[in-house]
Amino acid sequence: MINGIEINCRRCPTNIWKYRRMVVMGSGPPNADIMFVGEAPREMEDRAGKPFVGPAGKILNRLMNEAGIDRNEVYITNIVKCRPTNSGVTNRAPNLDEVKTCSDYLLAEIEKVDPKVISPLGRTATNFFIPNSSISSVRGKEFEWRGRSIWKARTIIPQYHPAMALYNKNMFDVLIEDMKVIGEYNREQESINLIYKNHKDFYKEVGKEKCL
Ligand code: SF4
After folding, report:
1. Rounded distance, CA 75 to CA 102, Å?
2. How many helices (H) and strands (E) does the chain have?
3. Structural domain tally of the chain?
4. Ligand 1 atom 5 nearest Cα
């Protein structure tokens, strides 16, 4: 068991586990402020056991760089932790059974990491958080999402999947635009936290903590 995920998990009713080399765990600091959620691992991730290490991962790194986000400070994961493939050769999209079964792991990851913002990458991940949405109309916008919690609302900001730039270079600017929204949101949250901390320190200093 790593990060609450069984390394030999065979929970899926499909044979997704038959061809996988490794269950691909989420990666990043356990208390990251930003969490990116992709769809599922591809072949390179399946070999490495890490999310977003292939060509789409390289684009993701570049986008984060452009938006002033440090990859070492974010948590990156997928909804489905095994590589979806029918033959071991070509990739396929995860099906609904796999998303439904594996998302229990994702929900546990979200509760544990408790990020300030979650950014689903691409249509499948976005539809997990905002069912029946069209990625082109929700990308770069803020949404509230409660998951399994009645009390706690989380911020979701979807964006296109970085792999889009592999097929269409013109998409690169659009992807940067989306990633900058996440960078800005995070910086705003950091400023708010700093203001709150300064206020707290001030009231502590003057012995009026009850004013907070
Ligand atoms: S996709 Fe998830 S639930 Fe299904 S077998 Fe792999 S780790 Fe288990």
Report:
1. 18
2. 7, 5
3. 1
4. 10
Confidence of residue 95 (pLDDT cuts 50, 70, 90): very high
pLDDT digit string (tens) for 52-74? Answer: 999 999 999 999 999 999 999 99
- Rounded to the nearest whole angstrom, what is the distance from the C-alpha of residue 24 to the centroid of ligand 1? 9
Structure tokens at 65: 């760089």
Residue 200, pLDDT > 80, answer: no
d(CA 150, CA 140): 25
Per-residue confidence (pLDDT) for residue 62, from 0 to 100: 96
Residues 108-131 have pLDDT tens digits of: 999 999 999 999 999 999 999 999
CATH at 176: 3.40.470.10
Strand partners, 35: 75, 118
Give the range of the structural domain holding residue 103, as residue numbers without chain letter.
16-181
> Is 25 within a domain?
yes
State which H helix or E strand residue 165 sits in: helix 164-167
- 173 within some domain: yes
Mutate to test the pocket of ligand 1, among 19, 82, 85 (most ligand atoms within 8 A of CB): 82
Angle between the 55-66 and 171-205 helix axes, to the nearest 10 degrees?
A: 50
DSSP conformation class of 2: B
